[in-house]
Amino acid sequence: MITLYQFPSSLGIRCPSPPCLKLETYLRMTELPYQVAANADVLKAPKKKFPYIEDQGRVIPDSSFIINYLKDTYGDPLDRHLSAGQKSIMLGMRRLMEENLYWAMFYSRWAEEEAWAVVREQFFAHLPVPIKWLVPNVVRRNALRDIYGQGMGRHSREEVYDIGIQDIQAISDFLGDQPYLMGDQPTSLDATGYGTLVNLLRASVGSPMQEYGLKLENLGAYCDRMHARYWTNSPVPEPVEVG
């Protein structure tokens, strides 16, 4: 049984982390049996980041490395029909979502005061006093440092959202009227697409990017399609304590 370590549900969605939601969606798309750890502690994660998994005595961090491991170990039912050229296109689109749009979304949650108020309440309200008076500000300071170090935080607010909106429009144009990002059949790129777009469109924290994305009807329809296919008809596992 694969054990998945990730953040708990928050902001009105299954997981407020695009990489975590991507990975759990991939597990559901491939029908691999898994359980979610209730006692997941990001400070104990191999790279101090979620997600990671335990499987057959191995611990594998990072959503992309995990998916590569799962393909090598259990087969590749989603992508095996694709050509090398199609896989290259998938990689480019995945990079757009995970390495660029992700940081604009990260900025919108941690740098904007109104959004930060929502994030603070949702992520840290459960902490006991006085920890919840101190930890949120430390985490936010580290997040803003990471955004600046990555480069997105060096731009103005308007420039950040212009970058993000260009990415969102590119995803919408790439999807077009197709049911899935690569055409008629779902692929692993759709795990990334769903994890990203649900966090963009459906999380209960607004931004100019969310407002723009909600106007692109094919993106909302895509999220609904993926949810109906992979989340509605099979139970979502309750977190379990693992030792």
UniProtKB/TrEMBL annotation:
Residues 165-226 form the Metaxin glutathione S-transferase domain. Residues 18-114 form the Thioredoxin-like fold domain. It comes from the Bacteria. It holds the Pfam family GST_C_6. This is Glutathione S-transferase family protein. InterPro entries: FAX/IsoI-like, Glutathione-S-Trfase_C_sf, Glutathione_S-Trfase, Metaxin_GST, Mito_Protein_Transport_Metaxin, Thioredoxin-like_fold, Thioredoxin-like_sf. Coiled coil: none annotated. It comes from Leptothoe kymatousa TAU-MAC 1615.
